[in-house]
Amino acid sequence: MAAAHLPVSPLVVRATDGRRAELILTGDIGAKALRPLEEGLAAPPLNEADEWVVDMSGATHLDLACAYALLRVVTRWPAAALTIRGARGAVHRTLHHAGLDRAAVMEDLGAAGGSGDSGGSGAM
Questions:
Q1: pTM (2 decimals)?
Q2: Are 58 and 24 in contact (CB under 8 A)?
Q3: Which residues are CB-contacts of 12 (< 8 A; sequence separation ≥ 6)?
């Protein structure tokens, strides 16, 4: 009998205290991850948090559509602050193409062994 391939959410919620949510995105976050990502981002308790910290140090690839899903969260709840940490070079470029570097604070860029992009931050 062949093993069933169930969709795995690319999003893990590490902690939430009602005001702040810490999320982890890992691996290849491609087109197949879009729906689970959108569903996870729209679900409580994430949609109730005032501040999100997204650890992307383990993300090796980010599809542009998934980057736009993150951007939609920031624009849907403009009072929520978004910080993205540890995005590797290729992931950071995708975030930039989606405009997230203008809507979120970017920290520790390239810290996960990326292409040598220097750190920086964007203003909300």
A1: 0.76
A2: yes
A3: 23, 24, 25, 26
